[in-house]
Design a protein that fits this description.
By secondary structure, this protein is α/β, with parallel strands linked by helices. Helices cover about 35% and strands about 20% of the residues. Strand 7 (about 185-190), helix 7 and strand 8 (about 210-215) form a beta-alpha-beta unit. The protein binds adenosine-5'-triphosphate (ATP) and magnesium ion.
Length: about 280
């Protein structure tokens, strides 16, 4: 099969996942249909995205700089609104009336943690979301403590974001979203700026959640650790969708879309480990 940069999703991969209804399959958590988005300056960022994610799935969103990954995630809770097409979360179509409900269901962890931290202390930042959704008192205090603990940031609770390192701010930003207990967690570059231990702890935290997850990342081994399925986006279109081990083993596909495994990382060994149940 010949692919071009603008090729529609490759059917070898699409056949193995995506929207096809399977009897007894988990309910659909995220349904994106025909999504197009043009920024006010005329840049076409999304050019017809169709994506279905089922409850409990962890999906990596891969693609080169400028592919449309962040733009897509900003549509999932209505930060950006589609030029055309539709987004539905747990069967609820995003619109003016549903946007508040959908914001409660979809937690976005932004590419830049500074977009998420604006209160005098981290504890107040973490309390902000659930308080906004009506959580008060002991329940609020407990949620803040649990969320900070989940990202190993309890000791920094009373420091302001400006006094935290880049990696600490990133972990704090994740805590602000975990505290809202979203049905769908969308993370934009969660491993960027993390030291190896923080990266591993974050992986353990995320693997411990049953939440449906979309993870935008350029860190392909990290994506493979977290996700079974990968979706590759380029020029605002989905160009591949399937098991992450297949996608990371396809050197031609990776090269066509400016994706590269780091030196020493072997996708075949990942496949063998997964097959043996130790991956
Ligand atoms: N505020 C904006 N105004 C105009 N165009 C924008 C804006 N933000 C993004 N774009 C354009 O939209 C396209 C998609 O950008 P987006 O930020 O979604 O890419 P991305 O896949 O997240 O890239 P990266 O890997 O660099 O984070 C790019 O062509 C980008 O230049
Ligand atoms: Mg981005």
């Amino acid at each position: 099969m010949v692919w071009s940069r603008r090729t529609r999703v490759d059917t070898r991969y699409a056949a193995e996942s995506g929207p096809a209804a399977v009897p007894g399959a988990p309910a659909v958590a995220v349904a994106v249909a025909g999504l197009r988005f043009t920024y006010p300056d005329g840049s076409v960022a999304l050019d017809g995205i169709d994506l279905t994610v089922r409850e409990g799935e962890r999906v990596a969103l891969l693609g080169p700089n400028g592919a449309g990954k962040t733009t897509l995630m900003l549509h999932l809770n209505g930060v950006l609104r589609a030029t055309s097409g539709e987004v539905a979360i747990s069967g609820i179509t995003l619109g003016d009336k549903s946007v508040r409900d959908i914001r409660r269901r979809v937690g976005l962890v932004f590419q830049d943690p500074d977009d998420q931290l604006f209160m005098p202390t981290l504890a107040e930042d973490v309390a902000f979301g659930p308080a906004n959704f009506g959580v008060v008192g002991a329940e609020l205090t407990a949620r803040v403590a649990r969320s900070l603990d989940a990202v190993s940031m309890s000791e920094q609770a009373h420091r302001g974001a400006t006094h935290l390192s880049g990696g600490q701010r990133r972990r704090g930003a994740l805590a602000t979203v975990l505290a809202c207990r979203p049905d769908v967690l969308v993370l934009d570059e969660p491993s960027a700026n993390l030291d190896p231990l923080a990266r591993r702890e974050l992986t353990q935290t995320l693997l411990g959640l049953t939440t449906t997850m979309l993870v935008v990342t350029h860190d392909l081994p990290y994506a493979a650790q977290l996700c079974e399925r990968a979706v590759v986006i380029d020029a605002g279109q989905i160009v591949a969708d399937g098991p992450i081990v297949d996608i990371l083993s396809d050197e031609a596909l990776l090269a066509r879309h400016r994706l590269e495994l780091p030196w020493g990382f072997d996708a075949e060994s990942l496949r063998r480990a997964r097959a043996a149940g130790v991956g």
